[in-house]
Each structure stands twice: as C-alpha cells, then as structure tokens.
Amino acid sequence: MEENLTYENAYRELAEIAQEIETESVSVDVLAEKVKRASDLIEFCQLKLRATETEVNKIIKQMENPPA
Predict the structure, then answer these.
(1) How many other C-beta atoms can be found within 10 angstroms of the C-beta atom of residue 35?
(2) CA 66/CA 61 separation, integer angstroms
(3) Cα(48)–Cα(44) distance, integer angstroms
(4) Distance (Å, rounded) from C-alpha 10 to C-alpha 5?
(5) How many structural domains compose the chain?
(6) pTM of the entire structure?
C-alpha cells in the first residue's frame, strides 16, 4: 500500500472500481487486477477504521477518568 494513501482516497478509488465492474466497463484482462486492488483497499480501510476506533476509545476513557 502507498505510504501517503488516505482513507478518503482509498474509499474513492474503491467506489470507482466498483462502478467499473458494475457497468462492465473493465475488460476481462484487467478484472483480476482490479479485484485484487479493491481487496487491498478494503483491507487498508478496515485497518484505518480499527485504528481510529481504538484511538477514539482511548481519548474517551481519558476524558471519563481525568488524572487526579
């Protein structure tokens, strides 16, 4: 995965790939390549969401239990 890939860019690219596949505008020759890329992007987005959820939960815990 690219170092500077953002969630928004990954999501946008996924939407484009999905549309290409749905409208059958992608050739059979590159279909497997597109599906592989989509799989990688989905994995990236899932990891990003999990990391964000963990960070948000950590912040909420700190807010609920401020240091004395």
Answers:
(1) 13
(2) 8
(3) 6
(4) 7
(5) 1
(6) 0.78
Specify if 2 maps to a domain: no
Altogether, the residues listed in the chain come to a count of: 68
pLDDT tens profile 17-49: 999 989 988 888 899 999 999 999 999 999 999
12 located within any domain = yes
Q: How far is CA 36 from CA 6, 32, 39, 43, 68, in A?
A: 18, 6, 5, 11, 50
Please give the C-alpha separations between residue 24 and each of 16, 21, 31, 40, 53, in angstroms, as whole numbers.
Answer: 12, 5, 10, 21, 35
Domain-embedded: residue 1: no
Domain that holds residue 44: 7-64
